[in-house]
Write a structure and sequence with these properties.
The protein has a single domain, classed as P-loop containing nucleotide triphosphate hydrolases (Rossmann fold, 3-Layer(aba) Sandwich), CATH 3.40.50. Helix 4 runs parallel beside helix 6 (about 135-145). The N and C termini lie close together (about 10 Å). Strands 1, 2, 3, 4, 5, 6 and 7 form a seven-stranded mixed sheet that branches. Helix content is about 35%, strand content about 20%. Helix 6 links the parallel strand 5 and strand 6 (about 155-160). It is an alpha/beta fold. It is globular and about 50 Å long. Bound molecules: guanosine-3'-monophosphate-5'-diphosphate and magnesium ion.
Length: about 190
């Protein structure tokens, strides 16, 4: 029998930890993955599929690259994805403003997103670093923006992609919301 498959877009600035997060997921869900401390900058896109036996479904992840010239490609994925993960480097205070702008552009300039009710999960990554911002600080910055997303479920969770702390919990949060939104965005079957 075919299993339902939900697609998740992994977004964020370059160097936020998107690819490390995807490899950490693959690693935890028993797939071949790269050593987490040996991830190189992404050229093009990375795709990964994991199976969640507890939910009897598959999750497909697109890590499409966050460099400025690649961000214009993001909207072409919005129509197809069931959920979005936006990763923030909590230790990079210098780029927080840029990060905020990019997130704001994403949530308010695209009607497809706010109309679709798809969940948006922000991950405050690199929590293992001593100088990283706490999730509370990140929330204060981003929640005001997220409120503009009326229909969507949104949340900020702390993780460390490098140590894998919080990674599984983030998927637990997301899968519930994607399943709840399946009237708006039905899964594909494969
Ligand atoms: P990207 O795919 O978003 O561009 P990468 O980001 O996954 O390539 O990661 C960029 C750098 O951040 C990598 O370091 C990676 O090891 C580091 N990184 C990712 N997640 C974490 C984390 O949770 N904690 C810490 N401390 N570092 C993290 P290098 O040094 O290879 O550039
Ligand atoms: Mg990458």
């Amino acid at each position: 029998m075919k299993s339902p498959q939900y697609s998740v877009l992994i977004l964020g600035l370059d160097n936020a930890g998107k690819t490390t997060f995807l490899e950490s997921l693959k690693n935890q869900y028993n797939q071949q993955s790269k050593p987490l401390d040996k991830i190189t900058p992404t050229v093009g896109q990375n795709v990964g599929v994991i199976h969640l036996p507890a939910n009897s479904c598959n999750l497909k992840f697109w890590d499409v690259g966050g460099q400025q010239n690649l961000r214009k490609l993001w909207p072409s994925y919005y129509a197809q994805c069931h959920g979005i993960i936006f990763i923030v480097d909590s230790s990079d205070k210098l780029r927080l403003n840029e990060c905020k702008e990019v997130f704001l552009n994403m949530v308010i300039e695209d009607d497809q997103l706010s109309d679709s009710g798809i969940p948006i999960l922000m991950l405050a990554n690199k929590q293992d670093k001593e100088d990283s911002l706490e999730v509370q600080d990140i929330k204060e910055i981003f929640n005001k923006i997220a409120e503009k997303l009326d229909a969507s479920d949104s949340r900020v969770l702390p993780i460390s992609a490098l140590t894998s702390k919080g990674v599984k919990e983030s998927i637990d949060w997301l899968i519930v919301r994607m399943q709840r939104n399946k009237k708006n965005r039905p899964p594909t079957y494969r």
